[in-house]
Amino acid sequence: MKVWLEAFSITDFISVGILLTAVTLNAFKSIESYVKAYTINSWLLSGLIAVVAVLVGETHLYIAALLTLATKGIIIPLFLRRIVRQMRVTHEVQPYISNSVSLAISGILVAVVYASLKDGIFVTGFSKNVLQISIAVILISLFIMITRKKALTQVIGLLFMENGLFLAGFSLTFGMPTIIELGVLFDMLMGVIILGIFAIQIKRAFASADLDKLTVLKG
Amino acid sequence: MVAILIIPVVTAFICYVLRNARLIGYASLVGTAALALCAYPTVTASISTPVADLGGALSMDALSGYIMAIVICLSLASAIYSISYLEHELEAGLIDLRGVRRYYGLLQLFIFTMLIVTMANNLAIMWIGIEATTIVSALLIGLGFHKRPLAVEAAWKYIILCTVGITFALLGTFIAYYASTAVMGTEGALNWTALKTVAPRLNPVTMKLAFIFVLVGYGTKAGLAPVHNWLPDAHSQAPSPISALLSGILLNTAFYGIMRFVSIVGPSTGEAFTGNLLIIFGLISVGIAAIFILVQENYKRLLAYSSIEHMGIISLGIGIGGPVGIYGALLHILNHALSKPLMFFASGKIQARFGSTNIANVNGVLSSMPLLGTLTFIGALSLSGTPPFNIFVSEFTVLKAGVDRGLWPIVILFLLFVVIVFYGFLSGFGRMLFGKPEEASGLPAEDHHVGTYNAGNALSNGIMIVMALAVIVMGLKVPGFIDSTIRTCVQVLGVN
């Protein structure tokens, strides 16, 4: 199994999958597809951790993979789907810029990350490419957050960012001790639930889930 | 030490299950007082020698003890003030019993999360604590959202900005962990106590990267410009006792994280790297705050921008460094934590009386409400940096540190900004305090909130008087025990 995983450089394949799911966000129009992309992204992340666990042979990585799968892969997507249904939004994402420009900019972001990190400044982890991919995922999701109008797209952008961050964490250190990972995942879960609650409240208070209505407070 | 963490959680539970609005307020007060009593021996012990518990997972030295003492004192003040504030909100129909139960439950949980930050011996656990403060306080800001759509807007901005920021801090923590495992293996590689001993051997390039991420992340939470945008919204929309906690201690707990990182990154990269970054962020914060204070029309937002200014001054103090700079910054943390909550408490009462947060709608506070007016006046003089009040002493100390090191451009810019703030702040509050009270405002002639004698009001006025006295005393002379505590903290941060 281990030999097979190494021979086909499975870690690289999976991390490219993670990058691609992040890039696809630029092209989607409905919030449901965003949630689906996030689900696939989380499953890939969890799979990557499991593969690394086999390669390194550390028990706490298996636990981390299971935890990631349970929270990011199952609980959060189910919760998001419920929120989407409850909000009865128009399901159109309505970006500030067109999808093709958005895709082009994401491509440029990935290129910039690769150019600036091409010497692998300090990584000695299992794969040099993984760190670059994770930084690219973080940048793309930040970009999605600032160019989309709906409250829920910001939440999903944030979740993608956190997936990118976990990827970076694994490429650097093979993960944190289990107790800390539990704490981080718990914080994240609570954060998403509360963001969901507020998204519904925004919808109620402003009769719309568009964030460009939130412009009263300034100066 | 574990008891300190258990008490707020138990109090939160009790507050949530009680069904009598009045009783809940006093239960929360008793719980916080018990917390203060229970923490007192630990805090005093930690200031002389570091104490640890739970097999080294919790650890406190003088700096944690100092910050924790501030957190607990302010929580107690806020618990006292909350009683009369919420009674008024209930009367005015802005909140229902369910809201009161939630408010006090969340207030106690908020205190709990801040205590975790000060007690954690582990970089990542501290991160978990800081992120938890965001989640709990966002709920407190957005509380009663059915009637206040603006609070939802503020809470949304707050949680999104701070979570993005703090995600960067986690990346920084990962990178620091990577650097430390290279030196000492995975065992205890995230513990302050362990990191401090190996700090000079950590890879400087990696630690630089880690520090930049951490500074941006925790800086967002501490309200440093240019990532401060959430702060004026959140502070102006939150209930007044919560604004006081956000400004007085939440910003400080985030800053505590930065200080801890400075103490381990400094020996690795050299003091100049961390110092310069902090000076730049500090100056930008003071400058931006000065401009916005000058044009501000809303007094709660004015106070919020003043928080950004004071966080900038603390950042400058740490950045300038040396024993004097750090001493000034730590003293400023305490002084700001006394004056700013006093002003937020006072502004809560002014808001209740005049029904507006606009400076133009409020005047003659000093003649219509002499006690409240005097307290506000003391707070305003203190916050604007007027001698002989407390903020002046610590600002002067930071300034002196800059002059000693010959950083003239910084000193001149700092002085310029502080003068602008002085003018903007006092002219704003001057318009509210002086002048003839308007009779034709349509409000009932008798002062239904501040003047009536009931236990809640007496308590809240009492705590404001105590805080004003502390402001005056700290301005005349820094008491001996505070002075020696801060000196120990300076040593803990590795500056001699």
Low-confidence stretches of chain B: 444-451
What value does the average pLDDT of chain B take? 89
Distance between the termini of chain A: 60 Å
Main sheet specs of chain A: none
Low-confidence stretches of chain A: none
The domain count of chain A comes to 1
Instruction: Kindly state the percentage of residues in helix of chain A.
Output: over 70%
Alpha carbon gap, first and last residue of chain B: 29 Å
Structural description of this entry:
The complex is a heterodimer of chains A (219) and B (496). With 219 residues, chain A is mostly helical. Chain A has one domain (2-213). Chain A has helices spanning 2-7, 10-24, 31-56, 59-87, 99-116, 128-147, 151-173, 178-206. With 496 residues, chain B is an all-alpha fold. Chain B has a domain at 285-438 and 448-496. Helices cover 79% and strands 1% of the residues of chain B. Chain B has 19 helices and two strands. A two-stranded antiparallel sheet of chain B has the order 1-2. The interface between A and B is large, with 37 and 48 residues.
Key terms:
heterodimer, A: 219 residues, mainly alpha, 76% helix, B: 496 residues, two-stranded antiparallel ribbon, 19 helices, 2 strands, 1% strand, globular
Helix/strand layout:
The complex is a heterodimer of chains A (219) and B (496).
Chain A: H1 2-7, H2 10-24, H3 31-56, H4 59-87, H5 99-116, H6 128-147, H7 151-173, H8 178-206
Helix pairs in contact in A: 2-3, 2-6, 3-4, 3-7, 4-8, 5-6, 6-7, 7-8
Chain B: H1 2-17, H2 21-48, E1 51-53, E2 58-60, H3 62-91, H4 97-119, H5 123-141, H6 149-184, H7 192-198, H8 204-222, H9 230-237, H10 240-269, H11 271-295, H12 299-320, H13 322-354, H14 365-368, H15 370-383, H16 390-404, H17 408-433, H18 455-476, H19 480-492
Antiparallel strand pairs in B: 1-2
Helix pairs in contact in B: 1-2, 1-4, 2-3, 2-4, 3-4, 3-10, 3-13, 3-18, 4-5, 4-10, 5-6, 5-10, 6-8, 6-9, 8-10, 8-11, 9-10, 9-12, 10-11, 10-12, 10-13, 11-12, 11-17, 12-13, 12-16, 12-17, 13-15, 13-16, 13-18, 13-19, 15-17, 15-18, 16-18
